[in-house]
Every structure is written in C-alpha cells, then in structure tokens.
Design goal:
By secondary structure, this protein is α+β, with helices and mostly antiparallel strands. It has helices spanning 9-12, 27-38, 107-111, 114-126, 151-155, 182-196, 220-223, and strands at residues 17-23, 40-41, 51-53, 66-69, 75-80, 84-91, 97-105, 133-138, 148-150, 166-172, 175-180, 200-205, 230-236. α4 (114-126) runs parallel beside α6 (182-196).
Amino acid sequence: MSESIVASPLLSSIAGLEYGFVSNHTPQGKDAHDRAEAVTATVKQVHGNHLAWATGLEKKERDADAIATLEPGLTVGVYSADCSPVLIAALDVKGQALGVMAVHAGWRGTAKGIVGEGFADFHGRLAGQGPLRYVAVIGPCISFESFEVGEEVVEAFPGSLENGLARFDREHEGKKKFFFNLPGENARQLRDAAALNSADLELEVLDRCTLKEKELFPSYRRDAKNAGRLLSYIGFRR
C-alpha cells in the first residue's frame, strides 16, 4: 500500500514501515481507500480512550479509539473526517519496528486523553524489549484557524487559553465562540506521555487542514453527513 494522499517524511524514513492516509472523499481516491481498507484492522470508534490490541484482521468488532499490533505484516488503522489521526511506531536500537499503533482523536477523545492513555499502554506492552525509540505523526485534521468551537470545548481542556491552544474569537447570540488547536493539544499530550514514561519520541505534525483542502480531504464540519472518511493506517514488516 503506497497510495497515500500526503507523505510523512518521518515515517517514510523508516525501513519496513508501511503507512498511508487514503480517502474515499473523491471518486479518484475511493479505489485506493477500498484497497487499503480491505487489509487493515479497524475498531468501532466511540470517542473514548481505550486501546485495542489486534493479532489478526478484524473489522469494527470492538469499541475503541486506538488500535495497535505487534504482528509483522498486519496493518492497523482509524477513520476520521476532521478528527486527528495519530500513527505511532516503536523502533528497536537497529531502527526496526517492533509494534505500531493508530489513534483516532476527536475533541471528546482528546479530552479523555486518548493519545496519552494509548501511548502509555503501547509503551507498557513493549517494556522489556530493550531500548526503544518512538516515531509518531499527527495526520491531516481540522486546523487551529478552522476549528471554531463553543465554550464547552474549551472548558474540557483546562488551561488551554493560557497555554495558547485555544483563543477567544467572538460572542454570537450570547454565546462565546473560540478556536481550538486539536492537533496542538494532541501533540502536547503525546509529548507529556512520552516524558512521563521516560520514552524517546520523535513527533511530526502534518500541517494539512481537512476543512480547507476540500479537493483532498473529507470534513464533517464542511460536508456533514455527506462527508467521506480518511483512513490512516500503519504496519510493519521484518
């Protein structure tokens, strides 16, 4: 599988690692999406903070918003249409992958700490494998400048106004409107989780906005029920 809409220089630099961001948003992309989907293990996403471990190909059988595997040749993935997809690989001292994880992080799952919780579980399962290095990429999602939210979203992230991950925009019909940095908050949580677990992490954030780039990406905020889905997947071979 090598038909990704966008490339991650970081993930592309890892030998034996397979990944992609493919969308059924357009007729041209649907075939690539369907080919990738057929061989990718997925979960039933519920905007929670649970990680499921896969040992074989499964399709939306378990409630979870992250899926990981230690099985070479098995691809895992998540769907999104504005939410942040996060792909992570654990590498040994030789730079070979030992495990991979895909995370679906919308604002509700992010408020529950899905990225940090998932990383802690992933790292814990790999403990004892020797020194590890983690590489991660936050894929295409709604950008800071496009994600206008209500006060309830900002309140779900205490300190986000003070640390610059949210900013006040305007007041409309008595309700306060803000912008929220979803990829930025997930990056913060992932870095914090790595530091808490004394893990070596290299993180890349792809600056691609699903709302703005309507020719490439699906967006629920833009297209509502007519939005397609972006499948973000990752796997490895030894």
